[in-house]
Automatic annotation (TrEMBL):
The phosphoenolpyruvate-dependent sugar phosphotransferase system (PTS), a major carbohydrate active -transport system, catalyzes the phosphorylation of incoming sugar substrates concomitant with their translocation across the cell membrane. NCBIfam families: lacE. GO terms for biological process: phosphoenolpyruvate-dependent sugar phosphotransferase system. The chain crosses the membrane at residues 38-56, 85-108, 120-137, 157-176, 197-218, 230-257, 293-319, 343-371, 403-423. Keywords: Cell membrane, Membrane, Sugar transport, Transmembrane, Transmembrane helix, Transport. It is a multi-pass membrane protein. It is found in: Cell membrane. It comes from Coprobacillus cateniformis. It holds the Pfam family PTS_EIIC. GO terms for molecular function: protein-N(PI)-phosphohistidine-sugar phosphotransferase activity. GO terms for cellular component: plasma membrane. InterPro entries: PTS_EIIC, PTS_EIIC_3, PTS_IIC_cello, PTS_Sugar-EIIC/EIIB. Residues 15-423 form the PTS EIIC type-3 domain. This is Permease IIC component.
Length: 440
């Protein structure tokens, strides 16, 4: 134990000497700082959206669960009630996480405007308007106009981030160059502020609409799908271990930059994973050998699901910073049901090198070990479709129908917690330093 403690102390010292200064420089860079602080504004919205989704999607499969005891009866009643009231229950989800890019562009542009000491509200509304011009174009349906809110969700977060930062940069440049409509002296700032952004609003609107159309002509899809268009050829791979490791690492990289990693890769991976799951289920029903190791939500349950819960554990039991511990307690209900947005935007893990490095290490270890354990027959292959909101250890068991899957999952969780400890301790200290500096 003494040697292990010495190792951790040395490792943490290296972290504080080498990694923390880099993380601090990243945190203080004006664009990245605005991105981080802007995403922090999303915390209450992601929490209420996650709770809404959790209530509306109880972890129950009515074809499998039967009312054989009081608990199962309660769960079935909950499922039936949630199904009947799904439209009402999911309103908070659809208007928070469902259109999260709206809050992203508002939050980042607001923080960036504050950095430049510009009128924050008119400038952030300018960024929102420009974003809607490319992501929320009204469609004519049955003599009416409607906005497809799917274009305002997590898949458009990259465009929201870029537009928020560039619009404020352009507005700032035009204002300092006096390319604006100036009101006479004596006009209150609350009246003059909106007129200052009028000309920049026109310029940004034209610029981004033209840019969106140019990208569409070149790639076949607009600015909101640009990242997916670029990376989709790289993601199109078979369900082998090397390709899966590449995909899960790429997912973590997307999340690091505030882009919904799961959404970015799901269009390619979902058909593969779903097809593999169907083939496995058919083989199971026929009493044949199950063919595919990676199927269904295998890479998530034995990957990011463990990573996020390891972060949550460290926040609640290792970290001492009051903000991190408070957020850790707040995120417990949603994280237990695999809804991790409060951690992503609350910690945040976005542009946080002290969570990014261990996340990459852990997800490679997790998927590789889970793949190997399945390959050698230590645990069964995934063959059951299970509600995605089921707590991850239970999901691992029910999807494989093998208690050893829980053993593998818990073992990986312990490894992840240990790997994260020195990083989270360093982040804990960094948070204390930043809070003390802000109070001075």
């Amino acid at each position: 134990m003494d040697k292990l403690k010495v190792f951790f102390d040395k490792f943490q010292n290296v972290m504080e000497e080498k990694v923390v200064p880099v993380a601090t420089r990243i945190a203080s860079q004006k664009h990245l700082s605005a991105l981080r602080d802007g995403l922090t504004i999303l915390i209450p919205f992601t929490v209420i959206g996650g709770i809404s989704l959790m209530i509306a999607n109880p972890p129950v499969d009515l074809e499998v669960m039967k009312p054989t005891n009081f608990f199962f009866q309660f769960m079935i009643m909950w499922k039936n009630w949630a199904t009947d009231w799904a439209t009402l229950l999911t309103i908070p989800f659809h208007l928070t996480i469902g259109i999260i890019s709206v809050y992203v562009v508002l939050g980042i542009s607001y923080r960036f405007s504050k950095y430049y000491k510009m009128e924050a509200l008119p400038n952030s509304l300018t960024a929102l308007f420009v974003f809607l011009c490319v992501a929320g174009v009204p469609q004519s349906i049955n003599e009416g106009s409607f906005i497809d809110v799917s274009g305002l969700g997590a898949s458009s977060m990259f465009a929201a981030i870029i537009i928020a930062l560039l619009v404020i940069e352009i507005n700032h440049w035009m204002i300092i160059k006096n390319l604006k409509i100036s009101m006479p002296k004596g006009v209150p700032p609350m009246v003059a502020g909106p007129f200052e952004v009028l000309l920049p609003l026109v310029v940004n609107t034209i610029l981004f609409i033209v840019l969106d159309q140019v990208i569409f002509m070149i790639t076949g899809s607009g600015l909101t799908n640009l990242v997916f268009t670029i990376f989709s050829p790289l993601i199109s791979a078979t369900a082998s271990l090397p390709s899966m490791l590449f995909i899960v690492v790429l997912t973590v990289v997307f999340w690091f930059f505030g882009i919904h990693g799961d959404n970015m890769v799901s269009a390619i991976t979902t058909p593969i994973f779903t097809g593999n799951l169907v083939a496995n289920l058919d083989a199971y029903n026929a009493g044949k050998d199950i063919p595919n190791i990676i199927a269904g939500n295998f890479t998530f349950i034995f990957g990011l699901a463990i990573v996020y819960l390891a972060i949550l554990f460290n926040m609640n039991f290792i970290c001492k910073n009051k903000r991190l511990r408070s957020l850790g307690k707040l995120a417990i209900p949603s994280s237990l049901f695999n809804i991790n947005e409060p951690l992503v935007f609350g910690v945040p893990t976005v542009l946080n090198i002290l969570t990014f490095i261990p996340s990459v290490i852990c997800i490679i270890i997790n998927v590789a070990i889970a793949y190997g354990a399945t390959s050698v027959g230590f645990m069964n292959r995934t063959c059951m479709s299970v509600p995605w909101t089921l707590p991850a250890p239970l999901y691992a068991f029910l999807s494989t129908l093998d208690w050893r899957a829980i053993v593998v999952w818990i073992g990986l969780f312990i490894i992840n917690v240990i790997i994260f400890i020195p990083f989270m301790k360093s982040y804990d200290k960094q948070m204390d330093i930043e809070e003390q500096s802000s109070m001075e």
